[in-house]
Design a protein that fits this description.
The protein has 294 residues and is mostly helical. The chain is built from 12 helices and 3 strands; from the N terminus they run αααααααααααββαβ. It is elongated, with a radius of gyration of 26 Å.
């Protein structure tokens, strides 16, 4: 009987680890993507910007249990979503979204992202507002299109903040428990497994806190390994286009040139090049470039 119980616990633990890894792999990129898009939109001068920032941040202020019960009312078999889709004729019978194997993980990721999106959006907004406006003004004067400013100025300067957001969201995803437990989703996370098998609710258990300690140690090892993320390779500044009478054209640059040094200082990102032009508009700069002669 003890061997059977131990085998069942091992299988349950393996499923919990596998499901948690799947949850983290999909939830973290979705969270970062939507937080970045939301921050980029709300960083622009749009009407009602303060209102929309409050709307996106509001779920963060709710208790995780409240979030879980709220979405349970929406996603249960007789909830708002099933009844609405039946009235529209999209489904024939109500669906229990949280226990259906085809939908349980999707809605777990959706609800968890909805609940925590505002926090990471706020961090990215702070990072965006720390980028000097002079860089964008110089890029516009140089005829740089918006998508190139995003990839050459915004994202490179935002990389440290994105790295922080990635680490924080990954840690939070591994710790997922309250919302998922309140919604009673079909799968269990590692933290849910610890809660259910360690006897914390007074239920009989053969292994008690030993299993909880082992699972906690596993989470700590995974998180410590995940923090050691290699830095993203910096994109070298390469001239893609030249506007007439732009600072780059006056400096004698050509399309395809890769800028290596400005006044003897090594540069590796576009923002460093723009900053040199902005701070020295009346002075001739000494540039070292790599040119592909064809």
């Amino acid at each position: 009987s003890s061997d059977v119980c131990s085998s069942d616990l091992d299988d349950k633990f393996q499923r919990a680890v596998a499901d948690t890894i799947i949850f983290v792999i999909f939830q973290v990129p979705v969270m970062i993507l939507f937080a970045l898009i939301t921050a980029l939109v709300l960083n622009r001068d749009i009407r009602g910007r303060a209102f929309w920032r409050s709307v996106f941040f509001y779920p963060v202020m709710l208790s995780p249990v409240v979030v879980g019960f709220l979405w349970t009312l929406i996603l249960k078999r007789t909830g708002v979503l099933s009844l609405t889709l039946m009235n529209w004729g999209w489904i024939e019978e109500p669906i229990q979204w949280l226990s259906d194997p085809s939908w349980s993980m999707f809605w777990s990721i959706f609800v968890y992202t909805w609940a925590h999106l505002g926090f990471y959006m706020l961090i990215l907004l702070a990072g965006l507002q720390a980028i000097p406006k002079d860089l964008y003004e110089a890029a516009k004067m140089d005829g740089t299109p918006g998508w190139r400013m995003l990839t050459r100025i915004t994202l490179p300067l935002l990389m440290p903040t994105l790295l922080v957001v990635t680490i924080l969201s990954m840690i939070k995803a591994f710790q997922a428990f309250e919302e998922l437990y309140a919604m009673q989703v079909r799968w269990i996370s590692v933290v849910s497994y610890i809660f259910e098998t360690s006897g914390l609710r007074g239920q009989p258990t053969a292994h008690g806190l030993g299993i909880a300690a082992m699972a906690s140690l596993l989470i700590a090892i995974v998180l410590m390994a995940g923090i050691e993320v290699p830095s993203l390779r910096e994109i070298p500044p390469v001239i893609g286009s030249l506007a007439p009478d732009s600072p780059a054209e006056r400096a004698g640059l050509r399309v395809g040139d890769e800028i290596l040094e400005v006044d003897g200082d090594r540069v590796s990102r576009w923002d460093e090049v723009w900053f040199a032009f902005v701070t020295s508009p009346e002075r001739e700069l000494t540039l070292t470039v790599r040119r592909d002669e064809q």
